[in-house]
Amino acid sequence: xxxxxxxxxxxxxxxKGHIEVICGSMFSGKTEELIRRLNxxxxxxxxxxxxxxxxxxxxxxxxxxxxxxxxxxxxxxQFADDIILLAGDCDVVGIDxxxxxxxQIVTVANKLATAGKRVIMAGLDMDFxxxxxxxxxxxxxxxxxxxxxxxxxMKCGDLASYSYRLTPAKEKVVLGEKDSYxxxxxxxxxxxxx
Length: 194
Ligand SMILES: Nc1ncnc2c1ncn2[C@@H]1O[C@H](COP(=O)(O)OP(=O)(O)O)[C@@H](O)[C@H]1O
Ligand SMILES: Cc1cn([C@H]2C[C@H](O)[C@@H](COP(=O)(O)O)O2)c(=O)[nH]c1=O
Ligand SMILES: [Zn+2]
Hints:
194 residues, Rossmann fold, 6-stranded parallel sheet, 5 helices, 12 strands, binds adenosine-5'-diphosphate, binds ligand LXEULUCI, binds zinc ion, transferase, zinc, kinase, cytoplasm
């Protein structure tokens, strides 16, 4: 379980920003873990701003919603740079579906953290082909704290770190849920692939 570094310290003089990245496959609990951390920051009376890419409207136009239907309000943004303007004087910045942002998200996350904010990001580390999902590798490299969470393989019940696409679509970005993806372990992911 991730334990927050110095969560209760609201003294602006002591503020030291950092980046946390929560990564893993689909259904691995990235959004639930993001919401858990953000709710705890709210309990600690910190000012929290939450963003998600505007393209992700699967469950809700603005809220961040997990597969298990835990919810937190958020602001959808088109470009990573919008986050700098909208973050204002908050203490904590939460970002879901980080893999859908442009490469500028790496500079934005670093700027916010260097300005003293706690930046918590969740995103897919691999795409449906098992390849790194840019810009996640760069975000992982910049992060002080990395948490990799795992789903359950829908084939064998082992731990899963791959997102298997059930449809023939070949584009990198195809929004979907259980209708078009399932979590799989390495063995079951590569089983039917050439
Ligand atoms: N194969 C699976 N493995 C684990 N959890 C699953 C699976 N399929 C559905 N779930 C549900 O998804 C929830 C996690 O959802 P969420 O936090 O939105 O994941 P992520 O953001 O990583 O896609 C779990 O608590 C569980 O209820
Ligand atoms: C693997 C993969 C996934 N996607 C899409 C499918 C979903 O809409 C999101 C991931 O959501 P989650 O909160 O992590 O479950 O990403 C995609 O567009 N391309 C892919 O390769
Ligand atoms: Zn498996």
